[in-house]
């Protein structure tokens, strides 16, 4: 498939009630392993890519390294690739669009794009984030690529008290609608694990909703019944592999 065909195929995999499952990767080697396991598409996780290069999350990884990592994946594995691009390394719409264009140029077909103010506090106002999404959409449309913008809200991830998540749902729905109108392709709600609240957002969203698996989250089949269109695993795969590596190394060194 060429890039346009991959982008169309990737978008088509997002179906409410029949979600695409993305087991997040961080380099070409993990991309190949997940592809061989049966994945239909690939997605990086920003935390994992940064950690694999010795950096903290939050756009501490140089963008040039991230772009080169994404290119190594698209060069090595012939599956649609979505890149977790955090805040697109720019607060301004024009800068965000120009940076995302670099990912389009190396063959990526989508991004995660968050409304958290990276290296700052809080979330962007709805109108500001919508303007950033709109700029990215206009850039991609200009290249005739049906680029998948997975518009992420950090409302729930930023609130550690799960009992307060119900009070954030209305704002999340408002943001989802604004992001859809601006050209978003999906709506990502990491941190939300309550089944009833997930179902409410799925019912209200015109976009396929992405839920991130974490402790306490419903299983894949339940999420599908709730209307979720995309399930991802974030930094979980990286942490799991690193823990196994530590255990195996410890077992070897304990014999010396």
UniProtKB/TrEMBL annotation:
It comes from the Bacteria. GO terms for molecular function: lyase activity. It comes from Rhizobium lentis. Pfam families: PEP_mutase (PF13714). The lineage of its organism: Bacteria, Pseudomonadati, Pseudomonadota, Alphaproteobacteria, Hyphomicrobiales. InterPro entries: ICL/PEPM (IPR039556), Pyrv/PenolPyrv_kinase-like_dom (IPR015813), Pyrv_kinase-like_dom_sf (IPR040442). This is 2-methylisocitrate lyase-like PEP mutase family enzyme. Keywords: Lyase.
